[in-house]
Design a protein that fits this description.
heterodimer, A: 217 residues, alpha/beta, Rossmann fold, 3-stranded mixed sheet, globular, B: 8-stranded parallel sheet
Chain lengths: 217, 293
């Protein structure tokens, strides 16, 4: 037996172009560990972001699921809100799941706190009701390009009520409610791929990070 | 589309991680807790210290109270039912609470059986003192666990004991050989499949918070460093001289639990903490953590 071939197949779990990309995962509250593990599994480095200093040198940021009131309040209290908003506005790729989508949205019905407000969408919090109305379902996501539905877990989830012209809808429920979207460098999901083994959205995000880094050089 | 699946029940607990769940007895306290950064609130008739002082039978809170609290905040609302009292649980589910705590803080309704939690769409959190108790509750369908500590004492000693016991037993399981697992399952009194799963993964299959006795930011950070995924706080906030400032400080300490500089900063000027009770001075029969099995 010789050496294993160095080149990876297209289905390989490690997107080699990502190289040394460092992804910041906002770790104030919520399921940040699940995101960190998913990014690590894909061969990129993920670091927890708890203070402004942790933002240095990151090539992308993930805002996890959790409680959007808690996350946005801690974002302000520890001085991350301003610098992170500026970085995302200047092109830093950002991915948000559930609470992360709420924190990124320009407007969130039901959230009193200041938040990042960088993406041109209006979302409604707890839009499906309380926990007893939380659900999981098979979701068609044409943008993933392989025709395989995604097992989507919705937990006290928001959805997107309105979106600006620059926003591309990536997935809708059968009743038409928008639950995934992308605008320039921002990707938001109302559900939680990080709670499953499906890493396709994280790969899609790492692709956005690659593009950002090659543009930067 | 399916609601009430285990991934969805367990998933809400995963969203609460790194956060503080605060006891509240009315809408005003619920709002204060939400503003302080609580990731959820526990709707109660009385905080445990007052339950302890009042004596008598402690039951599920009045639905009026629970609904008032649900209307006041947008964060998840939990409520407690008595151990084994599945009708209180049915009522809480009908009210639409987001999580049910089958809690030793209330007077048990059944001294032999806990609730069969798989029957519910609403998720349950249950207390434990050791790994066997945690796995029995998970076997019954609990989607989240908390170490019991000794509620209403403002004394962290039991919370530490229970968390160290759970973590130590997990480490022990990991070191066993396959042919030793059945005997260990018997010793723990725990379902074999769960014992084998923890042997393989080294972690509980659900989120585990710390509860019962947290009174300071340092207490919260201690429990986090010992391996808790988050903390429950009640009497420790309300029996202190400045509940609002203490609540905010405990939230910050739970996020930055490994940063002594921040812990030092948030611990300053909080006024008097809860006086607290020496757990050894409590008669055995009054220990809440001994309720349930």
């Amino acid at each position: 037996m010789g050496l294993r071939p160095f080149a990876s197949s297209p289905n390989d779990e490690s997107p080699s172009e990502t190289g040394q990309a460092k992804i910041g995962v906002l770790a104030l509250q919520g399921d940040f560990k699940e995101h960190i593990e998913m990014i690590n599994r894909l061969g990129a480095e993920a670091i927890p972001v708890r203070l402004p200093v942790d933002l240095e040198g990151i090539a992308g940021v993930i805002i996890p699921g959790g409680e959007s009131t808690t996350i946005s309040s801690l974002l302000s209290q520890f001085g991350i809100l301003g610098p992170l908003r500026e970085m995302i506005t200047s092109g830093l790729p950002a991915m948000g799941t559930c609470a992360g989508m709420i924190v990124l949205a320009r407007s969130a019905v039901g959230l009193d706190h200041d938040s990042l407000k960088v993406m041109d969408i209006e979302v409604r919090r707890n839009a499906f009701g309380r926990q007893v109305d939380s659900f999981d379902t098979e979701l068609d996501v044409p943008a993933l390009g392989d025709g395989v539905p995604l097992h989507a877990v919705f937990i006290r989830a928001p959805f997107i009520e309105a979106a600006g012209p620059g926003v591309e809808v990536l997935a809708t429920l059968p009743d038409g409610r928008v639950v995934a979207a992308r605008e320039r460098n921002m990707l938001v999901l109302a559900f939680h791929p990080e709670l499953t083994n499906d890493s396709r959205f994280h790969k899609l995000f790492l692709g956005m990070v690659d593009k950002y880094r090659s543009g930067e050089k | 589309m399916e609601s009430g699946t285990f991934i969805v029940k367990k998933g809400l607990a995963q969203m609460l991680k790194g956060g503080v769940i605060m006891d509240v007895v009315n809408a005003e306290q619920a709002k204060i807790a939400e503003d302080a950064g609580a990731c959820a609130v526990m709707a109660l008739e009385r905080v445990p210290a007052d339950i302890r002082a009042a004596g008598g039978v402690a039951r599920m809170a009045d639905p009026v109270k629970i609904l008032e609290i649900m209307a006041a905040v947008t964060i998840p609302v939990m409520a407690k039912c008595r151990i084994g009292h599945f009708v209180e649980a049915q009522i809480l589910e009908a009210l639409g609470v987001d999580y049910i705590d089958e809690s030793e803080v209330l007077t048990p309704a059944d001294e032999s059986n806990h609730i069969w939690k798989h029957d519910f769409k609403v998720p349950f959190v249950c207390g434990c003192r050791d790994l066997g108790e945690a796995l029995r509750r998970i076997g019954e369908g609990a989607a989240m666990i908390r170490t019991k500590g000794e509620a209403g004492t403002g004394n962290i000693v039991e919370a530490v004991r229970h968390m160290r016991t759970v973590q130590g037993e997990i480490r022990k399981l990991q070191g066993l050989q396959d042919d030793e697992l059945m005997a260990e399952a018997k010793a723990l009194g725990a379902p074999f499949e769960l014992v084998r799963e923890i042997h393989d993964t080294g972690v509980l299959p659900v989120v585990n918070f710390a509860a019962g006795g947290i009174a300071t930011p340092a207490d919260a950070a201690l429990m986090m460093q010992l391996g808790a995924d988050g903390v429950f706080v009640g009497s420790g906030i309300y029996k202190s001289s400045d509940p609002e400032a203490r609540a905010v400080a405990i939230v910050k300490a739970t996020t930055h639990f490994r940063d002594p500089g921040i812990l030092a900063e948030v611990s300053r000027g909080l006024g008097e903490p809860m006086a607290g009770i020496d757990v050894r001075a409590i008669p055995e029969i009054e220990l809440l953590s001994k309720r349930g099995w």
